[in-house]
Amino acid sequence: MTAVHYEDMRNKVALVTGAASGIGEACARQFAAQGCRLLLMDRDEERLHGLSQALGAIAAPGSVTDEATVSAAVDSCLRHFGGLDYAVNSAGVAGAPAAIAETTLDAWQEVININLTGVFLCLKHQLRVMQAAGSGAIVNIASGAGVIATPHLSPYCASKHGVLGLTRTAAMELATGGVRINAVLPGSTQTPMLEASLQQGPQLEKMILASIPCGRMGSAEEIAAAALWLCSSQASYVNGHSLVVDGGTLCR
Fold first, then answer.
1. What are the residue ranges spanned by the domains of the chain?
2. Hey, which residues are catalytic here?
3. In CATH, what number does 7-245 get?
């Protein structure tokens, strides 16, 4: 990909969750390339510290499901950098495939807690800082599963529908407060989470590719580029939007 430079992002402060791999890692690298000062969150402490060291970022290991951890991470941005300009909420899990009638409550709650409650907690504490400052931009990483049915992944599908509801509600609440909140809806993207799903067999990959009009999966860097743009001043009139980045899959 050809790098795009947003001069106004230099020295701004960005917080990225789920930063140790996949889309979150790609976001962290692209914000760092813009000259942002970074705080990175992930529950994979080893990978998080390695990436943070490479990017000169502050590492905040822990789960987005723990409110105290999320609050402390946001407070750490204030303490080290004096504020928070951008946030990308990328932490998420897919969960094991199962029909609704066979989905356990524990399996349901794990996915909902990370994908939906985690985004709520992040928004809650990011917004308390941005609202006080009167500026900021947040991008929630949702999914194409947030607007269509996804059989055998009901917790994931429900959680991503919920993320879009949270995104739009937050955007409306902060519409006159100088803070923008948007979502990116990736299609099938080459990440460790998808790679794990593909271990089910070669037929699944063929089915996925057949569903994508452009004939290929997306890269984490392509999704991160969309999140970066939404945070930039180039998207200053974009608010409450669900930006689909899926190679045309939802056109079908």
1. 7-245
2. 156
3. 3.40.50.720
